[in-house]
Input
Amino acid sequence: MNNSDRIISTGLAPENSDDTAEMDAECELRQLTISEKYHTERLDRALAELVPEFSRSYLQQLIDLSGVTVNGAVIRKASARVKAGDVARVELRPTPQSQAFKPEAIALAVVYQDDHLMVIDKPAGLVVHPAPGNWSGTLLNGLLAHDKKAMDLPRAGIVHRLDKDTSGLMVVARNRATMDLLVQLIAARDVSRQYLAIGLHLWKAKSCCDVDAPVGRDPRNRLRMAVVDLEKNQGKHAKTSIELLDQGEGCSLVRCTLHTGRTHQIRVHMAHVGHPLVADEAYGGIKKAGMQRQALHAFRLAFPHPVTGAMMKFESAPPQDFCHALNLLGLSYNTPHSEI
Output
């Protein structure tokens, strides 16, 4: 991010105002210079990049309420185009979402770090990004406290996510160039992500299989995802390779390799083939063997370093609750030796 992308000044109520303290608490005025990167971009889209702690929909509301000026003129259309050198002034009112983008001292298990990226071993229960119901205490908040560079990056450098109750490895960028390159690697499917999962029922299919089934919002329950018919519902191509590792006590231990990265993809695909994850009640699983969250752990991560080109490979041992469940179910886990 160059200087023209940054917030270059912040103004609050005049010093001679009797209501200074009250106004300070209610609003913040930010002045931003539009860089060449956003030349001819929509106003709301440019602001969403320049003020990443606020959602685009919230910024659109500010525009509708005459809370945004460009070169001194009030702009009431979110679709208005901005030009390089324009000076935008935004009146920001605090919301739970805006307050979420702040550093918090959260213990992070950093398994690798260099000048360009970090690899984090995320525990189950940690939300990755602030969202309704979880505006604080997230991985993003922890990254902002851990690394000052994260404040300059959209989403603090987060390029992919794990569900709150999924444990395991994630890669996080430490600068914008690396972030863009990691996004490209993920889009090109050059980032290998493998998971250990415990599914209900004994495995009846082939020991290795590919589930190639599109995933989208469940038309019967918009809070869930589902395998969908693309001729009738919106969705995206999704593919998961599943390999049986062991089975016993009515459950199966499998290794899942993502070829795409759709929301809840493994959970949906495992349920689709008749093996919902243990304790994944949203997709038909039941609590068993002490597991209180879906039995899913991102145990392997591999990718070419976006700057050096060196192949990076990481493994994370299953956490205690996962290992305890394996023992109770009589499932044996030894690190699979096949190539990442």
User: Anything to note?
Assistant: The longest strand covers residues 239-248. Confidence is low (pLDDT under 50) at residues 1-25. The first helix runs from residue 20 to 26.
